[in-house]
Amino acid sequence: MSSTDIELRDVSKVYHKDRIEIPVLDGLDLKIEPGQFVALMGPSGSGKSTLLHLIGGLDSPTSGSVRVGEAQIELMSERERTSWRSRHVGFIFQMYHLVPVLTAAQNVELPLLLFKMSASERKERVKTALEIVGLGDRTDHRPNQLSGGQEQRVAIARAIVTDPDAILADEPTGDLDSKTSEEILELLNLLNTEFGKTILMVTHDPRAANHAARILHLEKGELERDEMNSARFSPAAS
Amino acid sequence: MTITYVLMQNLKRNPLRTSLTVIAFALPMAVFVAAISFVVTLAELAAHNEEELRLGVHHKTTLTNGLPEGHRRKIEGLDPNRERLVAVCGMKWFGGRVPNEQNTLTSLAADADTFPIVYSDTSMQPEDIEAWNKDRQACVVGTTPADKYGWKVGDRLTLNSTVPPYLSLEFHVVKIISNKERANFFYFRRDYLVEALETAGASDARCNIFWVKCRNTASLRALQKDIDALFANSPDATKSEDENAFGANFTQAAGNIPGLMQAMAIVVVIIIGLVAGNTMMMSFRERMRELAVFKAIGFQSGRIFFIVISESILLALIGSLLGVLPMWGILSALPIARLVNFGPISGFTVSPVAVVGSICIALVVGVASGMWPAYRAMRLKTTDALRRVA
């Protein structure tokens, strides 16, 4: 079980398109405690996904510093960030992005191919991850044999199989019905409360955000509101 | 599970497209290996001919116009000390056919005394030469007709000539030639033919061609000029050619066959390159988001490049093997030499060089066609690719 703290200082991100500068984040300061479940809300274009990508090491800031645990993202090369991601961050996407020709177990095993690990150890880890997400009996099913909610569970298992410090979820319930969404959010809660994972979740849905202990509102690249959710308590918050 | 397993599974992603791409590789590569085998066969023949240092001397107008047999003495007289010339062998076309068969054998009557010297590549042993010299009906047969008609040393056989006066002659097999360059040929003694023609009242001691065995390439070139100069302005002026030029008259009678084959092979390679490149680009575009996720979960750019290009190489390899190996089997199993019963290009076989070369070329095409998609995948900006779906 591992978790990590996240700290952003004066972070700005500017994209360039056709020689036009598009500022997305502007002087953002943020600190997330280890084991905290944080929801990130805001209108489209407010910089939610960009912030998630910076924390996940998929991109580096134009200025400012992003620290995730011991890692100083802006100082790392792309190769270093890629290597770091494989060990410290798990990603969950709205559209799951499973490999259709692989079984659930094989999809979950994919990130482990980057580790020096015996086949039996990999198999054990995959089994554990699938059991955590409640799909221990669906290991040999291909994505097209699973429901949307089950596919997202496989994607979550893929995100946690390497035992990352933080889980970054980009609209994880955006493509699911309300009942399935609730199940997925409960699963994220479980990962947060039982396994102590730091979770940062981008969402447009206030009901989904209500599962988080802390809700951040971004507006035009700036942190407009930062509020604790009294309905939930995460280990760090309690 | 390994990356190789993932690659193999990826090929199952769109079975129809994979099958069509594999077929698009297999069929042209099958044609390619046959075409290159043909070219390689001609190249090997040319190399063999160059080593043999034989000069063909025939009538300047056409091969069917005979030359007087006295030309042989005159040619030999150009080099009485045998410093440039080894021997001269006169030959006459017989056009023999096995009774009740349609195919005409490449059958030639050759001067008995010099044939084993000029055609030393028939590998006649002293006992073969002795049998050849002793028996006027002796014949030396290539493996193709020998296999086809089941002839072996010691057999007696009859051939009917397809040229006037349509003689029917009996022969005695003294040697089966294993040399593949001579696999289609049937040689017998010219004195036997001359005698038979006299008996039939159609005396004709003229030769269609004199083969002059030379000491070296320089001698061959010098004799070529000297012989043609010797008979210039006579009723029987000659045209001398080395064996390759002579063979080329046959093989290129219907156009520049090797050139056409090579051009076709190049076109084939370009076409499969375009087909494979298009397939790989489609495959890459479809999987751009998936590859972005691979990067997000920690696959390095180099590994992404490897995955995409390996898939292209794998497709090329499977396609080429499915085309080349069956074609190799078919061409090896079929009696191609009989189908291509055409003197100078006898002994056609599938060249291992063509097989290995074809597979190597397919691999190069696989690399080339996968290079751009693999490069794009490697350079793929994860955030941009993910944003398109988020």
As a percent range, the share of strand residues of chain B is: 15-25%
SSE arrangement of chain A, N to C: EEEHEEHEHHHEHEHEE
Q: Quickly give the structural class of chain B.
A: alpha+beta
Give the low-pLDDT segments of chain A: 234-238
**Known CATH architecture of the domain at 34-58 and 88-228 in chain A:** 3-Layer(aba) Sandwich
Please specify the SSE layout and strand pairing.
The complex is a heterodimer of chains A (238) and B (390).
Chain A: E1 6-17, E2 20-32, E3 37-41, H1 48-55, E4 63-68, E5 71-72, H2 78-88, E6 89-93, H3 104-109, H4 119-132, H5 148-160, E7 166-170, H6 178-193, E8 198-202, H7 206-209, E9 214-219, E10 222-228
Parallel strand pairs in A: 3-8, 3-9, 6-7, 7-8
Antiparallel strand pairs in A: 1-2, 1-4, 4-5, 9-10
Helix pairs in contact in A: 4-5, 5-6
Chain B: H1 3-10, H2 15-52, E1 54-59, H3 70-77, E2 85-93, E3 96-97, E4 106-110, H4 115-118, H5 126-134, E5 138-142, H6 143-149, E6 156-161, E7 168-177, E8 185-189, H7 190-199, E9 209-214, H8 217-231, E10 238-242, H9 243-251, H10 257-286, H11 288-296, H12 301-333, H13 336-339, H14 352-379, H15 382-387
Parallel strand pairs in B: 4-8, 5-7
Antiparallel strand pairs in B: 1-9, 1-10, 2-4, 2-9, 3-6, 5-8, 6-7
Helix pairs in contact in B: 1-12, 2-10, 2-12, 2-14, 10-12, 10-14, 12-14
